[in-house]
Design a protein that fits this description.
single chain, 322 residues, five-stranded parallel sheet, four-stranded parallel sheet, 14% strand, globular, binds N-carbamoyl-L-aspartate
Length: 322
């Protein structure tokens, strides 16, 4: 395994998106994640790289996988982890995002993980605090650690992360997962196909250098990877699909549609999954095709690697100003 240099593998203070990451940095994060996969499979899972550090998790939207895996990642690296529940915080009393950020900042956290329903909110918050900020999803904008964990899952399943044909299918218009993945997988020189009904395909998507389809059979032809997305009804203000039944019929992934992909194509989904809406439940559970549980495992390792690398920069910048 390639070793990551101690100081500059992620020479930036925050991880706000995939947009600013070079292919070398992506590879460096994935390489370090490999060592954390190994650690997480041990009975003894503790490291001390974040010992003495404080990690605050601030989620303004619901989350199961992302929040739990950031919390677990922080604890396995030895950090003190604080979980702020927005429902029982002063945010419910009308405090602004910036005031909340400034208040937390005054307590000297080292790492702040934020999820927010508005695109751009996490970038704004990062400008107001001194600690490292990790974006755990902002509106329809970016979800960088999801794209990194997806990349790690693909790299391990396919043995490489370049020159693959990858289909991203479903509610692309509302998906930060799709946006971060299009950027990451594009940087690593893969062929990306987007498959969605026209109502769920963002305008001007062609500018991203992707191929666009509104038909699953044509779009899935000979692909190596099929990434399904949830219908994100919480971001829809109106009727984007005729009915869930009709949507499943045309765009839901089942064995019949998957037969158009390569025989060894893998099936992915970031979760939470709606069985019988965007994916057939039996296929999602088929461990010969589906890597959905691997994605969850990779999520913990990638978040450990990302926080480890950002914390190294905190040390460096403090030394530099000492
Ligand atoms: C995704 C998200 O929150 O953007 N979920 C996740 O982080 N695993 C996708 C989704 O909510 O559909």
């Amino acid at each position: 395994m390639q070793l990551v240099s101690r100081s500059n593998a992620l020479a930036q203070r925050d991880l706000l998106g995939i947009e600013g990451l070079s292919p070398d940095r992506v590879s460096a994060i994935l390489d370090l994640s490999e060592s954390y996969i190994a650690l997480n499979r041990n009975a003894q899972k503790k490291s001390d790289v974040l010992s003495g550090r404080t990690l605050i998790l601030l989620f303004f939207e619901t989350s199961t996988r992302t929040r739990t895996s950031f919390e677990l990642a922080g604890k396995r690296l030895g950090a003190d982890v604080i979980n702020i529940s927005v429902a029982s915080s002063a945010i419910k009393k009308g405090e602004t995002l910036i005031d909340t950020a400034m208040t937390l900042n005054a307590m000297h956290p080292d790492l702040l993980v934020v999820r927010h329903p508005q695109s751009g909110a996490v970038d704004l918050l990062a400008q107001k605090v001194n600690c490292a900020v990790l974006n755990a999803g902002d509106g329809r904008h970016e979800h960088p650690t999801q794209a990194l964990l997806d990349a790690l899952t693909i790299r391990r399943a396919k043995g490489r992360l370049h020159r693959l044909s990858i289909a991203i299918c479903g509610d692309i218009a509302h998906s930060r997962v799709a946006r971060s993945n299009i950027m990451l997988l594009g940087k690593m020189e893969n062929r990306i196909r987007l498959i969605a009904p026209p109502t769920l395909m963002p305008a001007q998507i062609g500018e991203f250098g992707v191929e666009v389809f509104d038909d699953m059979e044509k779009g899935l032809k000979d692909v190596d990877v099929v990434m399904m997305l949830r219908l994100q009804k919480e971001r829809m203000d109106g009727g984007f699909i005729p009915s869930e039944r009709e949507y499943y019929h045309r765009y839901g992934l089942d064995a019949e549609k998957l037969a158009h992909a390569k025989p060894d194509a893998i099936v992915m989904h970031p979760g939470p999954m709606n069985r019988g809406v965007e994916i057939d439940g039996t296929l999602a559970d088929d461990i010969n095709r589906s890597v959905i549980q691997d994605q969850v495992e990779m999520g913990v390792a990638v978040r450990m690697a990302a926080m480890d690398l950002l914390a190294r920069n905190l040390v460096d910048s403090r030394k530099a100003t000492a």
